[in-house]
UniProtKB/TrEMBL annotation:
It comes from Asticcacaulis aquaticus. InterPro entries: WcbI. It holds the Pfam family WcbI. Residues 33-238 form the Polysaccharide biosynthesis enzyme WcbI domain. This is WcbI family polysaccharide biosynthesis putative acetyltransferase. It comes from the Bacteria.
Length: 324
């Protein structure tokens, strides 16, 4: 980790990278690209490779791999890249060299900031459960993702059947989540204001006509392809059109369909599947990260209830901010 008290170390690293790059002669049309970010950055790697086969995609530094994502472990990847694509990483992130302000010093004009796509419209009741700085305190079939509507029903002592009925309750979702899609888009516009590559406009225009997200922060292959196209166009790199490359859906392990009430509330024009995809629960009611299955709404609620029975005190204290 590069400490905030030692800015000179960042400067020395930047000079080292400059010297290293000057000694390398990439082939024309074969840029070396590194990424910094979350699962979206990881999923962009195969997309960029498919769209620019001649490019050298060096890999990604994951913000989720703290504390292993030190500069020492990733120096060559970052220092040899012609282009570094990074999400905006705030100044409170614990690995200091990855903070955007420090990456700008380290990478100079090789750094290009890209958007982090996040949309609550399809799943306005999807939440993380945080405790003591961690969101992994309770994991269910959708790992860290939970549904506030289900938590609310559990807290009220309602049966799984009654919890499932909420998914089709237009009044419940209108009362609690009517403005979620618009608010989410407005927040993305705000976060993208300083970026040269933006995606909020595309999401706003197309989210009703085709599915763009599997969960609140897992975009579909199509949307990742649009982002890759915009990044490459901004960089002036010739590339295949996304319609010409295979689009494997890299972030589709967990798929939560919009609830029927949300589908109607938003006026969505694509088919709404009747099942969701999530992890199998092991006998101890923790998710098996290597095994997936499909859940009906009834099965999904029953799985969450079984998990919540093991964490009852924490779940009963959780604030859903739901108006019954």
């Amino acid at each position: 980790m590069i400490g905030s008290q030692d800015r000179s170390l960042i400067v020395r690293a930047a000079r080292k990278a400059s010297r290293l790059l000057s000694s390398l002669t990439p082939s024309a049309g074969s840029p070396r690209i590194a990424l910094v970010g979350n699962c979206q950055a990881q999923a962009l790697i195969p997309m960029l490779k498919a769209m620019v086969p001649s490019a050298h995609i060096l890999g990604a530094v994951s913000v989720a791999s703290f504390p292993r994502n030190t500069y020492a472990n990733h120096a060559r990847l970052i220092d040899t890249a012609d282009i570094v694509l990074s999400l905006t990483i705030h100044d409170q992130y614990p690995v200091e060299w990855l903070r955007t302000t420090n990456l700008q010093t380290l990478c100079g004009d090789r750094l290009h900031l890209i958007p982090n796509m996040y949309f609550l419209g399809y799943t306005p009741d999807m939440v993380y459960l945080h405790a003591a700085g961690s969101r992994h305190v309770v994991q269910g079939p959708m790992t860290d993702y939970h549904l506030a509507s289900v938590i609310h029903a559990y807290q009220q002592g309602w049966s799984p059947d009654r919890a499932v009925a909420l998914f089709s309750d237009d009044t419940f979702f209108e009362r609690n989540y009517a403005g979620a899609a618009e608010q989410s888009l407005a927040e993305m516009v705000r976060r993208e204001a300083h970026l040269e590559v933006r995606m909020a406009d595309y999401i706003a225009e197309h989210y009703k006509s085709r599915r763009l997200f599997h969960t609140l922060n897992h975009p579909t292959a199509h949307l990742l392809g649009v982002l890759a196209h915009r990044i490459l166009s901004h960089l002036g790199i010739d590339h295949y059109d996304i319609s010409q490359v295979t689009q494997e859906d890299y972030l589709s392990d967990i798929v939560k369909a919009p609830h029927p009430a949300v589908h109607r509330m938003l006026g969505l024009n694509f088919d709404n599947p009747s099942v969701d995809r999530a992890h199998v629960l092991k006998p101890d009611h923790t998710p098996d990260l290597y095994s997936l299955r499909y859940y009906t709404p009834q099965e999904l609620v029953e799985a969450y209830y079984a998990v919540y029975d093991r964490h009852r005190e924490f779940i009963m204290a959780y604030q859903t901010h739901i108006s019954a």
